[in-house]
Each structure stands twice: as structure tokens, then as C-alpha cells.
Amino acid sequence: MTMRERCERLWTDARLWTGLGTGLGTGLDLIERGAIGMRGGVIAYVGPMAEAPDAEQVIDCAGRWITPGLIDCHTHLVHGGDRAAEFEMRLAGASYEEIARAGGGIVSTMRATRAASEEELVAAALPRLDALIAEGVTTVEVKSGYGLDLENEVKMLRAARRLGGERPVSVATSFLGAHALPPEFAGDADGYIDHLIGEVLPRVASLADAVDGFCEGIGFSPAQIERLFVAAKRSGLPVKLHAEQLSNLHGAALAARFGALSADHLEHLDEAGVAAMAGAGTAAVLLPGAFYFMRDTKVPPIEALRRAGVPMALATDCNPGTSPLTSLLLAMNMGATLFGLTVEECLAGVTRHAARALGLQDRVGTLEAGKRCDLAIWDIERPAQLVYRMGLNPLHARVWRGS
Q: 180, 110 in Cβ contact below 8 A?
């Protein structure tokens, strides 16, 4: 489409943050007095208003800011129950590991999730999804991992896919069967991985966009995760990994060896892991909500990731146990205040780099011709206000695929 061809819809008199920069200190990519044109749900024009094509419908943004639609690239939105009682236990001094080993943690949510129907899981997840949508989120990733058997992992992934039919939002799904050891396989983690590979993965492959795992002392060993990743690759699914959250088992380097889309958490990531991720193009997904909620003190190696040029995404990690957070705007503020990210890094972390963490960088995450017309229009004076404020939502309008 040439610049002068007519668009279906044109947003004018806007200040644009395109998200096309490196996100590594080169300056915000801004277009003053800009315009965005859409045809067929896809961006057809981004640039100065004076050069914009004609359009069937023109929307005057009155000087407001437009960014790409926000992307929450790591969530556990679909689950049964909550874990408020465990929150009280932690306030009384119990550790995450102690709660998990006492039958709480992920297995507690497993029981509630197994007891819920697919319809009940969808209904419970919708308010959490609505909170994200209200802040300009247009793409969200949703993991399984609370079913921990074939029937319930399938149920979770179906519920996650249904969210995209209930609301105007793009949903990416991740199969997280290797999240915790279910009671049926107590003491037999190798047997459970065999079960996931032989019985579950073949049945969920059509419902999942990626395979995830929890590589940790209270999760699964690197050797067990490696076997799962081999099977995932054989099934044609990309991988991602919860890694280096509580200790350094070198999961990020393992993930990078498999060309993982992302390694997530990373508080205990070392220089070798950073180098491996940089070499593989694996994104770092930072989850400050979990860091805050668990009162952690070990900050991810932000400067090392910067130096190596590893893309840094930010996400809510919305889950019932360690990050009951449904605000990506607050996650940005936490990324800045707790981890020391810049404004530009926070913005890139919930747009361009979040898209990279989902393997969607050719479709969403920046304002450029050919990508989906997913926009967030803000009542702000400067982009820093999206990161600076807490508890205030300045979203004026949200556009998903041009509507």
C-alpha cells in the first residue's frame, strides 16, 4: 500500500511512541503531530500528520499519546481458588519453600483448579483479564500448569483459548505441565516427566503456542527439563522457562541452548547465563510483582543484561500464590523502582520486547506498517507518566486489530 492510498481509519493529531528504538538508551522514538492509518486491521501508515493518506473515518486524538497496545507476556490468569491464607502464613514468617513442602503452593491451586469446570475457570479469569484490558493490554500470554494431569491441563488450555473469544484480546498459550509434581507422582519426578512427554504433550500440542517449565529445587531439575524440551522441539513447539528465581541451576543457559523464546524471573542469573541468552536471542522476562510480593532481596542482573544486549520484557506474572497482580502499569513502576529500569526500558518491556518473548515480534509490539493495529491511546503529557504514577490509569482508548 502506498502512502497516498485511502485508509479505513486514521488517528490524527497524536504524539507517537513507535517503540522502534533499541531500548538501550538511544532515546525515545517519538513522532510529534503524528498519524496512524489502518486498513484491514493492520497498520498502513505511521508518520507525520501532514503526509497522512485520506481515510473513511478520521479520529482526532487532540494531542494525546499513542503507544503500541501493551503485551503481558507472562501470566497464570486461568486457575481455581486463591491463596490468601498462604499470604497470611508468609506474613507470619513461613517461606515459599516451606509452604510448598507442606502441601501448599502450586499443589494447593492444583486442587482448586481440578475441582473447577472449564466454564468456571473462564468466568473466574475474566475479571483478571478485564483489569489488564482496561490498562491498554491487547495481547496476553496464559499458562497452564495448575492441572498437572492430562484432563485438567487440556481444560486449562481450552479455557485460556476461550478468553480470546470472550474479549477483544489476542491470547498466546503456554503448556506448563512441568510446574510442580502432582500427588499421583509423589517422589517420582522422572516418571512424571515421562508421563508429560508420552501422554500429555501429544494431546495438548494443538492447544499450546509454547512449552514452559519450572527449573528449580522445588520444581524440576535441568536434566528433566532438557528431556521435556527435546520432546517439545520434536513436536514443533518453541520453549520458555521459569529459571533462576530461587537459586542458580543454570536453567537460563539450558533454555538458550534450545533457542528459547524467553527465560523468566532470573534473580539468580549469572554472567554465563546472560552470555548464553544473548547468543541465542532469548528474551529476559522480568517479574517484579513476584519479587515484591515474596519480599525478595536478590535483584536480577540488570546491568549485565543491558551490556549484553539481552531484550528485557516486563510482565505481571499474575498468579494466585506469588504475584496476584493485574496491573501492567504497576509492573512497569516496579520495574523502574525495584530493578532500576529506565522509562524507555519499561515501555519497550511491555511492547517490543514482550512481543519478542512470545515470538510475535513480526506481528505486534511496535507502531509500524504491516503490523496489527493494536494501539493504546493515553491522556498523558509525556511517556514517563505511564511508569511514574501508581494506581492511576490514564488510558483514553484501546484499539485491538483496528477496532
A: yes
The Cα 21–Cα 82 span in angstroms is 39
Q: What cell does 6 get?
A: 485511502
Distance CA 204, CA 278 (A): 30
CA distance 170 to 82: 25
- Residue 155's pLDDT is 98
CA angle 125, 131, 134 (to 5 degrees): 135
How much is the average pLDDT of 176-202?
Answer: 97
User: Cell 503524528, residue?
Assistant: 34
The cell numbers describing 343, all together, are 522509562
Set of cell numbers at residue 307: 551490556
What gap in Å lies between CA 367 and CA 347, rounded to an integer? Answer: 13
User: What are 259-312's pLDDT values in tens digits?
Assistant: 999 999 999 999 999 999 999 999 999 999 999 998 999 999 999 999 999 999
Helix (H) or strand (E) holding 263: strand 262-265
Residue 254 grid coordinates: 539450558
**CB atoms near residue 295 (< 10 Å):** 8
Mean pLDDT of 86-114: 85
| 3-class SS of residue 362 | coil
Res 2 pLDDT > 60: no
Q: Bridge partners of 284?
A: 263, 312
Q: What angle do CA 329, 330, 333 make, to 5 degrees?
A: 95
pLDDT at 5: 87
Q: What average pLDDT does the structure give for the chain?
A: 95
Q: In DSSP terms, which residues pair with 73 in a beta bridge? A: none
- The DSSP result for 87-128, as a single string, is HHHHHTT--HHHHHHTT-THHHHHHHHHHS-HHHHHHHHHHH
**Residue 23 above 50 pLDDT?**
no
Name the grid cell of 126. 475474566
Q: How many H-runs (helices) and E-runs (strands) does the chain carry?
A: 16, 15
Non-local CB neighbours of 169 within 8 Å, separated by 6+ positions: 129, 133, 137, 138, 139, 140, 163, 400
pLDDT of amino acid 3: 46
